[in-house]
Amino acid sequence: MPPRLPTVLGLLIGISTCAALHPAMAGTPPLPPPDAIPQPRDLQQEQANLQLVHQFYLDFFARHDIAAAYRVVAPDYIQHNPNVADGRAAFVSHFTSYFARHPQASASISQYGSFGDRVFLRVHSTADPDDRGRAIVDIFRVSHGRIVEHWDSVQDVPATAENGNTMF
């Protein structure tokens, strides 16, 4: 046997063994990045975030207290609703105009919860007393006692439902 052959064979066996034991090669998913691994929950902070968002929602959307946005919403607020621009100023401008057009607009929270820095609300929003309204799921991200980011999904409340269930 030439002197190099045992070395080459040893390398091939070693590489094959490593490849077979590597999680990606063995069909085992790799570990998630460290920031994606769930951390222990801080239930006191989650409750504080929930109370902050709940009170803000009642003040701003149910009572039309525009000043609530200046107390709670961060100036560089990130908005994922395509109808509203980023920033607290744009948020305030959008809803000041909406409330002027719909002075009887109302919002009632039917369900809520929090997990980590996120607060979730299920809301029935109406433009006036004759409006069937919209079912809204709002998600807010809270950081250092401020609302810093928002996502929502909005669905019109239909006149009838195929299943006989309410949306709330």
From TrEMBL:
SUPFAM superfamilies: NTF2-like (SSF54427). InterPro entries: Cyclase_SnoaL-like (IPR009959), NTF2-like_dom_sf (IPR032710), SnoaL-like (IPR037401). Transmembrane segments: none annotated. Keywords: Signal. Residues 56-150 form the SnoaL-like domain. The keyword Signal applies. One of its GO terms (biological process) is polyketide metabolic process. Residues 1-26 form the signal peptide. It comes from Frateuria aurantia (strain ATCC 33424 / DSM 6220 / KCTC 2777 / LMG 1558 / NBRC 3245 / NCIMB 13370). Pfam families: SnoaL_2. This is SnoaL-like domain-containing protein.
